[in-house]
Amino acid sequence: MNGQILLAMNGAETARRMMGRLQSAGYSVYLADHLSEALLLLEQVEFDLLMVDSHLSGMQEFDFVHRMQKGRHRMPIIVIGHSGSNEAAAALEAGANDYISGHVDDRELLARVSNLLNLFHISTQKRNEKIKIGDLQIDPLSRQVSRGGTEIDLTQREYDLLIYLTERVNEVCTREEILSHVWDCDFNTGTNVVDVYILHLREKLDKGRKWKLIRTIRGAGYMLAAPDNEHDSELSSLEDAP
Question: pTM for the full model?
Fold first, then answer.
C-alpha cells in the first residue's frame, strides 16, 4: 500500500537518495531538514508515516518522537539512526516503532516501510470500530457520540478526553495521566483543567441519568465505568460526591 511519508532528515544528499527510493516505490514524500519545518508540515498534511533522523536539527534527544506518540498526530515512526544499538534502544524507548541505519539498502528500507504501514493500517481499522459501553455509543470515523440514542455534542478536547477514558474503561486514570495523554503535559502544573473538563463531560453524559458513567475515585482520579461491572459495589464506596 502506498501513502504519504514525512522524511525529517539532515544531510541533503542522503535525504534526497532515500526520498528517491521511496518515491520510486510509489510513496508521496515530503522532506524537512529541521524540526520546525517538520512540525509545520504536520499541521498542513495528513501523513501515514514519519521517518525522522536521530540527529534532526532542532530535536533534543528523542523528545519529538515521544511527543508525537502521545499527541494527536499519531502515526508509525521510523528513526533513521547513526550510532547503533544504544541509540536504537533510546529511540524505541521514546516510542519509535522501528529503527534503521541511514545506510540501509533499498530492499530492506521498502520492506520495513511497507510492513509498518500494513500493521498500522490494521490497527487503525480496529481503532475506527464503533465503541459501545452500556448505552454510550461512539463512532470514531464521524466522531458522533450518543447516549441512549440521544446525540451529544462535544468539543474536540471533550471528545479526546472521552476517548482516553474509554480506552481505559473500568481503570482509574490519575489527573497526571490524563494531562499527559490528552493535553500532552508531562507534569502537573497545578491547573484544574482536568477537573473542569470532567465536569463538562458529566454535564453532557451523565446529568439526569440513573447510571453515571464517569466516577470520581477519591484520592486517585477518575474512571469511566461500564454498567454491570463486577466491582461496582466496591467502587461506590470509593467515590467522591459529584
Answer: 0.56
